[in-house]
Amino acid sequence: MWRKTGAITLQFLRLFMRDRLALLWTLFLPIVWIVLTTAMTGGGGSPTTSLSIGFVMEDPGPTSRLVIDSLDRDPSLALQEISSRLEAREQVALGNVSFALVIPESFGSTLERGEPVQLSVFRPQNASATLVEGLLQKAVQRASANANAATFALTQLRERQSLTPSESVTLWRDSFAQADQTWANPAVQVRHELLASTEKVNIPSGADQTSPGFTTMFLMLGVFFSAATLVEERQDGTLQRLLSTSLSRASLLVGKFTGIFLLGFLQFVILALVGQLVGAHWGRDPLGVLIMGAVFVLALTGLGTLLASFAKTSQQAGAFAILLTMVCGMLGGSWWPLEITSPAMQTAAKFTPVYWGLDGFNQLITYGQGLNAVWTNVLVLLGIAGVSLLLGTLLFKYE
């Protein structure tokens, strides 16, 4: 039995490889589509990275250091010290840092006198300074508040006793440092109460959306088209002629199922590799990706067989394949992230195999989860595969 089943599988694969139109629909068109859509959506989607900020400490005093420390606390910034203004200009021009901040030599002494002080920022001509200016403004306001508090404390103490210049400087700096420490435990705090929340706060974008999204959609189309060949073989009498030999129905169907599955899995591997090349993060958990790909293709194989059981002609099977693929792709999240859709659409998506496959891929790619995070997806897809393969086998007509 297994030898005959293997022969049927090899024959199925050989005929497919000779079909240029089938190769066009299952490989060439999906590859071109994924590459073009990724290019149009801005390339590879990746986890949020820090904004690189260079800084020049012309004034190495403790007051300047407190300003840098306040910026360094922000996780969205990656600070890098630069030795001079000239080097800062060069680093920005070369793109090694996004912006460069210069703390002037007189920064600390100017603040101690209670006078305004200016900071210099170098940035590329085509870059928006909105974000960095907002972050700098926070740091400057914090330094200004510390300076005002230190100046006030020094003024009050001078009214009670005389101080030497060195004592005044020491007292002002100590007061500045103490005032800065109070920011860690502010007198007024805000308590946030979330009225609605979701576990996934990131939304797939760039290649992390287009690559798995269109891979699942074109996989569905390719597997359904492969299954439609069963209808064509039934129409032209190929199945009847095969069954007139010593070949059993079980060997015939298992051989065809295996061929459809192997073609679908090969298509998945190729499209995933292409997605990795254009910027998607398929390689974070290769084992999880391969398992998800295998069970997703297996579920599609069962559904394709079920489709072939109901279709009366190959043209009808092809039309249903395109229609079901488009509907499931749009509902399941292939065209756009489900996170931006309505709750009703997100609920409807769960009735499509594309959702369970794509959600599993997103867990592995966008959210950086491991295989333990997609077991529900794996079990659902295995359930779809088992039920559809059983029904397809029972309902399939050989004549």
Describe this structure in words.
There is one protein chain. The protein is mainly α and 399 residues long. The protein has two domains: 232 residues, no CATH class; 134 residues, D-Maltodextrin-Binding Protein, domain 2 (3-Layer(aba) Sandwich), CATH 3.40.190. It is 66% helix and 5% strand. It contains 15 helices and four strands. The chain has a four-stranded mixed β-sheet, sandwiched between helices. Helix 2 packs antiparallel against helix 8, helix 3 packs antiparallel against helix 6 and helix 10 crosses helix 11. The longest helix is centred in the middle third of the chain and has 31 residues.
Q: Any chance you could write out the topology, listing elements then pairs?
A:
Blueprint (H helix, E strand, L loop, with lengths): L1 H17 L1 H21 L10 E7 L4 H11 L4 E6 L2 H10 L4 E5 L3 H6 L7 E3 L7 H31 L4 H17 L25 H29 L2 H6 L5 H29 L8 H25 L3 H19 L10 H7 L3 H13 L9 H21 L4
Parallel strand pairs: 1-2, 1-3
Antiparallel strand pairs: 3-4
Question: What labels would you give this structure?
Answer:
399 residues, mainly alpha, single chain, 66% helix, elongated
